[in-house]
Design a protein that fits this description.
The chain has about 240 residues and is mainly alpha-helical. Helix content is about 55%, strand content about 0%.
C-alpha cells in the first residue's frame, strides 16, 4: 500500500468527522430548545402541554350555562320539593305554631327577616345577617350554607341541583297563608332585542327620524297638489282659447 492509499483513508476520516459536526450544528438549529428550558426537555418541538392535557385548544375556556331562578321556579314542582324537605324534618317544623326544633320553624320563611324568628337562638352570623329570606337568598343559602353565610351553625352540606332547589323553594312558598310570588323569568334574547327596537322608536333620534319622514311626505303631497293646480290652470286656459 502506497502513500496515496493512506491519504485517501485520512481524507475519508476527516470528511466523516466534518459531516458529523455539520449534522450536529444543523440539528441544534432545527430542534433548538429555545427559551423553554427543562419544561419541554426531550421534545423536538415545544408543545403547549397545558392546552393539550387541559382539554381546551388555544386557551379557550368553556363557559358554564347559567339558569335564571325565575325560569326555574316557573317550572318547579312543589310536591317534589315536599319530598326533598323530608331531609329537613329532623331539624325544622313546617306547620304554623309548631315551634322550633334544632332549627327554626319554616312556616312563613319566604319573605321574613333573616335570623329573626321568635324564640329561636340563632348564631351571631345569621342573627346579624342583613335582609330578608327572598327566593334568591334562600337559593344561595341552600346551595352552600357555609359558603353563603360564613360562621353559620347550620351543618347541612347543601343541595347542589338547581332544579332540586327550585322544587324545594316552590314547596316553601306553600308554607304561608299569603304566598310570596316567584320572581319573573328573565326575558329571552329575542325579547331583549325586540324591547330595544321598540325603545329606539321613542328616543330623540327616533323622533327626529320620524319627523323628517313626515316632513318628506308632506313635501311630496304639496308638490303633487301644485302639479294638479298647474294642470287645472292649463285646462282652463285651453278652454278659453278654444272659446275665442
Amino acid at each position: 500500500m502506497g502513500d496515496l492509499f493512506w491519504n485517501k483513508v485520512a481524507a475519508a476520516i476527516i470528511g466523516l468527522i466534518l459531516m458529523v459536526m455539520v449534522i450536529g450544528v444543523v440539528g441544534d438549529i432545527v430542534f433548538s430548545e429555545g427559551d423553554h428550558g427543562d419544561e419541554h426537555a426531550g421534545l423536538a418541538y415545544p408543545i403547549d402541554l397545558e392546552a393539550v392535557l387541559g382539554g381546551t385548544a388555544g386557551g379557550a375556556t368553556i363557559e358554564e350555562e347559567t339558569i335564571d331562578l325565575g325560569t326555574l321556579l316557573a317550572a318547579a314542582d312543589a310536591s317534589a320539593g315536599e319530598r326533598i324537605f323530608r331531609r329537613c324534618v329532623s331539624c325544622h317544623n313546617a306547620a304554623p305554631g309548631a315551634g322550633n326544633l334544632q332549627g327554626p320553624n319554616m312556616w312563613g320563611v319566604v319573605g321574613r327577616d333573616i335570623g329573626a324568628y321568635p324564640g329561636f337562638a340563632y348564631s351571631s352570623a345569621m342573627a346579624e345577617y342583613p335582609g330578608d329570606w327572598t327566593y334568591e337568598a334562600l337559593d344561595g343559602f341552600l346551595a352552600n350554607p357555609r359558603g353563603y353565610m360564613s360562621g353559620t351553625a347550620m351543618a347541612f352540606a347543601g343541595i347542589r341541583g338547581d332544579e332540586d332547589r327550585a322544587d324545594l323553594l316552590a314547596y316553601l312558598q306553600t308554607l304561608d297563608d299569603s304566598q310570596v310570588p316567584f320572581p319573573a323569568p328573565a326575558p329571552s334574547e329575542e325579547e331583549v332585542v325586540e324591547d330595544a327596537t321598540l325603545e329606539n322608536v321613542f328616543t330623540e333620534e327616533g323622533a327626529e327620524a320620524s319627523a323628517a319622514a313626515i316632513e318628506s311626505i308632506e313635501n311630496i303631497e304639496d308638490q303633487m297638489d301644485a302639479l294638479d293646480d298647474a294642470a287645472a290652470d292649463g285646462q282652463v286656459d285651453d278652454a278659453e282659447d278654444n272659446g275665442n
